[in-house]
Specification:
The chain is an all-alpha fold. The protein has one domain. Helices cover 85% and strands 0% of the residues. Helix 1 runs antiparallel to helix 8, helix 3 crosses helix 9 and helix 4 crosses helix 7. The longest helix is centred in the middle third of the chain and has 32 residues.
Length: 266
């Protein structure tokens, strides 16, 4: 479903704003109301949504646009290695050390660290999140410039994994000494980077259309890395049968929801 230029831009702006603001507001509601039992369930669902978006939509489109299977496979491989290096350098933190513990319900780790570390981790979160929100905007723009369906699915997958991450960010900022109002304002401000990335991506990719398949390949690599390296290891901390069944069902629901959106848009 190709779109006109103005329609494409409208979709990008809407998806970027909704993606950023909705995820922050939803995360703030859960963090401020201490509904932490929901977080492990959200993570399981997010894993399914990310993997579903990659293998049902993003990679097939990237391969189709590229026309070179080997080159696209190499792009995804290099992307995974790139995100590993970036995370090691603490430039891109989808899952912060403190946050991962919060994600799976082990808040004690947060309390054990001193206030100085919290202040530093709070600032690192804001810098890292602003950067990766900006990149998310570029990915949303690239997806919508190919197909409305791909754009919607990509935006939904980004929102799905942003919410549990933002919950963790809120909790760490609160423990860093920020007030609830400050944490909400900082996160909303950071989320606007998604819109900036979407707008810049749209205008930049108008002149370099040949970059779009590569950006889709990197988007797939990013989502695979987040799901497999950051989110799945946290699920292994709960080994009881009931938790395992719940995780598998929720991952399946995440994949199923992406398939349903894809089917409805078709």
């Amino acid at each position: 479903m190709p779109l006109s230029d103005m329609s494409t831009l409208s979709w990008i702006i809407t998806a970027s704003l909704l993606g950023g603001v909705l995820s922050v507001l939803s995360a703030g509601f859960m963090a401020f109301n201490a509904r932490r039992a929901w977080i492990p369930m959200l993570i399981s669902y997010a894993i399914g949504a990310l993997l579903g978006a990659v293998f049902l939509e993003i990679l097939p489109h990237a391969l189709h646009e590229s026309g070179n299977i080997e080159a696209m496979a190499a792009t995804v491989l290099l992307g995974i290695l790139l995100f590993f290096i970036l995370e090691k350098l603490v430039l891109w933190r989808h899952c912060h050390g403190d946050e991962c513990e919060v994600h799976v319900g082990h808040e004690s780790h947060v309390h054990d660290k001193d206030h100085h570390d919290h202040g530093r981790s709070g600032m690192m979160i804001m810098v890292g999140d602003t950067f990766h929100n900006f990149v998310d905007g570029i990915l949303i723009a690239a997806a919508f410039m190919i197909d409305i369906k791909l754009g919607v699915v990509t935006a939904l997958a980004i929102i799905a994994h942003e919410i549990p991450q933002e919950v963790g960010d809120f909790l760490i900022l609160l423990h860093s000494g920020y007030s609830k109002k400050q944490a909400l304002i900082f996160n909303l401000f950071s989320s606007l980077a998604t819109l900036v990335g979407g707008l810049l991506g749209y205008f930049a990719l108008q002149t370099v259309q040949s970059w779009i398949p590569t950006i889709l390949g990197l988007a797939a690599a990013s989502m695979i890395y987040v799901a497999v390296a950051d989110l799945i290891p946290g699920l292994h901390k709960r080994t009881e049968l009931k938790a395992t069944v719940q995780q598998v069902v929720l991952i399946g629901l995440g994949i199923g929801s992406i398939w349903l959106v894809k089917w409805l848009l078709d």
